[in-house]
Amino acid sequence: MAKVGVFVCHCGVNIAAKVDVKRVVDALKEMPEVGFAHEYKFMCSSPGQELIRKEIKESKINRVVVAACSPRMHLPTFQKALASQGLNPYLVSMANIREQCSWVTDDPEMATQKAIDLVARQIKRVVHQDPLEDISVPMTKTALVIGGGIAGIQAALDIADGNRKVILVEKSPSIGGRMAQLDETFPTLDCSQCILTPKMVEAAQHPNIEIRVNSEVKKVDGYVGNFEVTVEKKATYVDAQKCIGCGICQEKCPVKTVPDEFNADLNLRAAIAIPFPQAVPAIPIIEPDYCKKLIENKCGVCAKICPAEAINYDDVPMQETVNVGAIVVATGYREMDPAVYTEYGGRKYPDVITGLQFERLVSSTGPTGGELKRPSDGEIPKTVVFVQCVGSRDESKAHAYCSGICCMYTAKHTMIYKHHVPDGQAYVSYIDIRAPGKTYEEFVRRAIEDEGVRYLRGRVAKIRRLQNGQYRVYTEDTLVGRAVHIDADMVVLASAVEPQEDAVGLAQILGIAYDSDGFYTEAHPKLKPIETASAGIFLAGACQGPKDIPASVQQGSAAASKVLSIFARDNLVKSPQIATVDPTACTGCLTCSYVCHYSAIEEKEFGQRQVAEIIPGKCQGCGACVATCKGKAITLAGFSDDEIYEEIVSCK
Amino acid sequence: MNKWYKMKHADMQKFVSALTEKWEVWVPYRIDGKWEFGIYDTGRDLDFPESVIHVSLKNLFFPKRRPIATYDENSKWSLKPVEPEGKPRIVIGLHPCDVAGIEYMDKVFLQSEHKDVMYASERKRTVLIGMLCSEMADNCHCTDRGLTPDATRGMDAAFARITDGYLLKGLTDKGKQVLRSEYLKKVDEVPDKKDWPAGRYVIASPEEFMEMYDDKIWHEMSDICLTCGICTYACPTCVCFLVTDENFKGKGERVTVWDSCQLQSYSRMAGGHNTRKTPASRVRNRTLDKFAYSHLRYGQISCTGCGRCVMVCPLKRSFPQLGARLTERIKDKKKGKSKSGARSKEA
Amino acid sequence: MKEMRKKIEELLKNGEIDVALGYRENPATGEVKADVFRKDETLDDMVFDERCVQNLVNYLPTLVARYKKVGIVLKGCDGRSLVTQLVEHRINKSQIVALGIGCEGVRLDGKEADKCGDCATNMTPIVDYEFGEKKQKKDPVFSKVKEIERMSPAERWKFFADYFARCERCYACRQICPSCYCEICVADQQEPKWIEPSAKLSANTMWHLIRAYHLAGRCADCGECERVCPQEIPMRLLNNALEKAVHELFGVRPGTVPEEVPPLVVLNKEDPDTILEGKNE
Amino acid sequence: MQVEKEPKILAILCKWCSYAGADLAGTSRFIYPANVRIVQVPCSGRVDPIMIFKAFVEGYDGVMVSGCHPGDCHYGTGNYHARRRIAVARRLLEFVGVHPDRMHFTWISAAEGKKFADVCSRFTDELKALSGTEKTLARKELAT
Q: Has residue D72 been placed in a domain?
C-alpha cells in the first residue's frame, strides 16, 4: 500500500504570498493515500531535504510529493534525497505550484484552490509510479569511422589517442579524401598535401587504428555500444600483405586508358595503379573494367613482373562483421557534375573545367606537373573567368543551398592563378561573397586589391566557344547595371558541393536521417550538431553539409570526443524512462516501428508469433510508439498510461 | 379459481392501465420490428407477439450494469453495499421459455451457497404473467428442451389469445390477486391444445457431450464464429458477470457488468495467460456449458430453446444446430464411423 | 462465377490451396453465408452474387494459422481491408491466393447496401486471379456524413448520444472487423480504465470514439460493423467521417493502394498546420 | 439559477518545449486564468487521442495540446506524428458534436511564455463564451 508523504514549499514568499499553504496542507491530509503533509519555507534547502530524509526514515512513507517549483528545476534534487534513504528516486513527483500557479495567478483564493488541485493530482499520480533502475548496457569500446578524409582521419586519430581502438573504413584505395586532391588551402595558402600527409601517415602507423581501404559498410545491426557492422572489402586483385609498393606494375601495364579519378579525370592512367604518389597505403589495385587479363584472360604482365608475387587475379569481395560501440560517419562530399548547365558547356568544352579540376591542374602532383596549361591545347591561359555558384543557390536547376566553400576557394584559385601566370587576368563572376571565417574576408580583399582580380557581380548567362579557341562568357555587372562579355582562354566553374552518390543508401543502412538534398541530419541543428538521432552514431565533415577544412577537422575532433565520452564509462548507462513492449499483448502489427525516430523497434519471435521488441539501448523515451499502439501493449516508464490517466481524471 | 376467465381486448388495455397505479408494469413493445419489454405507458396500444420476444427478460432481474456498492475516496474508501429497492413489478406477456430461463437463473443465484441478494429482491418484487405461445417461430425449439409453448409452469398467472380477446388464469396466490378485476368474465372456454412439432434439434445426453471434450470437431465448428458476445447477452441463461469499479471525481460505484465467455478477454488472467485463447475453446465452452456443465451443476441443461442466439447472431449461425451437429457426431462415433461425413453443410 | 468456381476447383485439386474461403448457399433456405470449401467436396453451392455481403477477410488469420495456403474470394471493399492486414503483418501474402471478383454491389434488407453507394473500388487492389468486370474507380460521396456535418454540434451530439446509449457492448462490431485484432482490446483493459466495461452512455461514447479513431486510415468501409450491430448503431457514419477526413487531410483513401502504410503512422513533415484547426462553424 | 462556472481546461504539454514555455510564463510573471491543468508528457508524439476523448468525457470544458514547433522536436519527429493523430481526433470529436472551440492544438516553444499565457487567456474566454451551450460528451453523473 502506497503511503505518500507530501511536502508543500513556501519558496519564501514566492508561493506563500499567493497560495495559502496551510490550507493546502490541511486539504490534502484528508486524502486516503496521504500519510502526512508538511509545509516548509524552502524545501530545496539542506534542512528542507533533511525533512524528507527524516520522514522517509521515521514515518515509513514510500512515495513523496513535493509541491514547489517546476520539476525542471529541482526534481533531481529531491530524487537524490530519496535515493540517499534507499528509496527509489523515481518514486517522487513534483507539483508545480510556483511557475504554474502562484506566479501566474492574480487571485489568492483561485491560486490556493488551483494549488490544492495540482498537488492532489500528483498524489494520485505518484501512487502509480513504479520504481525504476538506470539501464546499464555493456559495450564494445571500439569505434568505427566511415570515410578516410580529413574529418575521418582527425576523428580516428583523436579516438586512437584516447587509447581506444578505431576501425577506419575507406571506400577508395587510399585515405586522404578530397583534401589530398587540393593544391593550396585558404586562407593561408599552405600546401594541402604538406599538412595532410603527416596525418595520413600517423593514422596508418597508429597502433590503435586499423585502416580498411577499398571497403564499404554493407549492414549495421545493433545499437549504441553494441553495433554489428558488416564491412565488405572489394576485390583489388593485389595482395596488400605481399605488395611492396614498388610501382613497377603500374609502369609496365599496357592498358593506359583509365580516367584518373585522383586527377579529376583530366588524364588517363594504367589499369593497375597506386591512386596517387602519397597514397596510404601505397598499394595498387586493378580496375577490373579495364584490365585485359580480367576481361579477356590475356596479358597478365603485372603478375609476371611483380617481384613480390602479389597479384591475384582470382580475388573476390570479402565480407567481415566487426563489433563496434560507436560510429563516426565522415563520408564527405562530391563535386556536382556541371553537365546540367548545358549553357556553360561543362563536360563539353575542354577548357571549361571545375574547381577541383583546376586544383589538379595547378598541383605539382597533377597531370601537368604543376604547370598551368589549359587541357585543350596545353597553352597557358591568359584570361580566366571563374564562375561561382554553379549549382549552388539555384533551386531551379540544382540546389537551393549555398555550398559555403566556393567563395573562398575561388579567391584562392585566382591568387594561385596569378602566381602561375602573373601577366594573366582573372575575372570572378559572383552573386555575393561570403567570407565569414577568421581572416577570410581579408583573404578575398587580397585577391581583389593585391592581385587585381576583377570581381563582377552577376550570374553568367552563357558560355560560347569561339572560332579562335577562346570562350565568350556572357554575364552582367549588376553594380553598373549592364551586360558584359569576356573572351577567356579558360573558364573555371565553382561546381556545387553535393552529398556522395551513395549517401542515402548508407543513411538507410545506418538508420540515420538525411535531408532532401541527401546530407545527413544532425539530432538538433544547434545543440546536437554532431549527434544523429540514432544514439552512438555521430557526424563529421561535409556529409552533414558543405564545410571547409577547419570546420571538418573541428567536427572530426568533436565526434571523437563524443565517442570517447561514451567509452569513458564501464557500461552504457541510460535513463530508465524508455518504452517496453508486453509481448503477450502485442499483435506484431509493427506499426510502432513506422513512428520510431530511432529505429529502436525490431521484430522478435514470441511463441508462435512475431512481436515488436524495443531495444533499450536505442530507445530515447519519446513515447511516439506508445501512442501508436492501439492495444496499449507498449508502456513508457515514467509516463505510463496509468500515470497520465490519473492526472487527467483526478482533477476536481 | 382454477378456471380460465375471459377478457376482451379493449378491456385488457384498461386492466393493464389500472395496474400501473400500484405496480411497475412491463409489457412487450415492438420497436423497429423487434419485440422488447418496456415499462408500460398508460394509454399505449397493447399487443403481444405470438411467440418468442426478441430481447430476453434477463436484464430485469440481472441488469447489464448493476451497482452493488458505492464508495467515496474522500471518506477513506468507505464501501457501502447498495440496498435493493424498487416498487412491485408485473411482467405481462412472457413466454414459457422465458420462465425456464428465470428458473435457471434462480438456480444459479438463489440456490447456490452464496445467495445473490439483489437478484432475490428483483425476483421477489416481480409477478410473472405469462402468455401461452400460439405458434413456434422459425428458431423456436423449446419442444426439444422438455417444454411446450403453452406450458404454464413457473408463472403466477397465464393468458392466451383467442379471437375476440384473451383467456386468463391465476396460478399462484400472487397471480390470482393481480387478476382480481371487473373485466374478467367466467367462461367455459379453454385455450386450444395443439400438437407441437418436435425433433428439430434433438441433442445427446450431457455425459455424451462431455466425452466430446477433446474432439477435433470444435475447430471445425468455430471456423465461422466471430466469438462476439451477443449470443451470451441475448441468452436468458447466460449469467456471467465482471465486477469492476467505476470512479468519477473521487466517488465511485462497484458494479457487476455482463461478461461473455465468447470474448477473449473473459478468460485472460493476470500475467497474460489465457485459458481459452482459441475461438474453438470458447465455442466449446459455451456449447458444453449449455448442454452439459449446466446439467452437471444444476441438474438442468441451460438451453431453453428460445432461439434468441440464432436471431441475434450477426452471422445467423444456429447455435442449437451446433448441438445437433455434435449429437450427430456422437452417434457416428458410437457406430464407429470415421470422423468425416458428419459435417453439415450449414456452418 | 463459373470461371471462378472452376479455378478454385483446380487450385484445390492441384494443391495450390488447401482450402478456399467463399460464400455458400443453403439450397433449402436460399441463405448465403461465409464458409470454407475443402478439396473433397463439390463447389456447386458456392455462389457469388448480391447476397454475398460478408467480408471474408476476418476469417483469414484463423485459417492461415491452420492451413498453409488459403484461397479467398474478395469483393472490392474486402480487398481494401486485406491491404491493411498485409501491411500490418497480420497475414503473409505468400499464404493466400486472392480471387478478386468484379462486385456489382450487394443487397441488404432488400435494398442495395448503403456502403455500395460509397464504393471506392469494385475490384480488390490485391488480386491473383481476376473475374468479372473491373469498373472505373469513383470517389465515395458520403452523403450521410455531409448531412450530419451540416447539423449544429448540439444536434450532432443528440443524434449520436441516442445511438451510443443503446450500445450493449457485445463487441460484435469489433469481432467482425478484420482490422480490430488487438490481443487485448483497450476496452477490455482495467488498468487504467480508459473505457469502463459497463454499457452506459459515457463508457459507450469512449468505446465508439476509440473504435472509430483506431480505424481511421485503416477502415476499408466494408460496413460489417454496422451490419452486425444488434442495436443498429450507424457505425459506418463514424468510419466514413474519418475516411473522409483522412482523405481531405492527407489525400489517402485507405486500402486502395497495396503496401501503403496507414496514414496515421506516416511521417510527413510537410503537413500544413492548418489541419489542426477546427472547421469553421 | 446556476452560477457561471469557471471552465476547466486540460493542457497536455511536451516536456521540452511547451512545459518549459509554461514555466517561462511563470518566471516572467504573466498572469493567466487559473483554469488550466497541465499534464506533462515527454513529447507531443506521446499524446494518444484517447487522452483527449477521456478528458471530454470526464467533463473538461476544453482540451489543449501543445508541443515543440515543427522541426524543433526534441525527439526529431514526434510532433509530426502528433499533428496527424490530433488532426484526425479533432475531426472525430467535432463530428460527434464537440464544439470546435473546445479544442486548441498548437505549438509553443520554451521561449514562448507569453504565447502560452495568451493562449490560456484566450482559450478561457472562448470557453466562457460557450458556457451557454451544452458540454457534449461530458458525463452527467456516475451512472451515465
A: yes
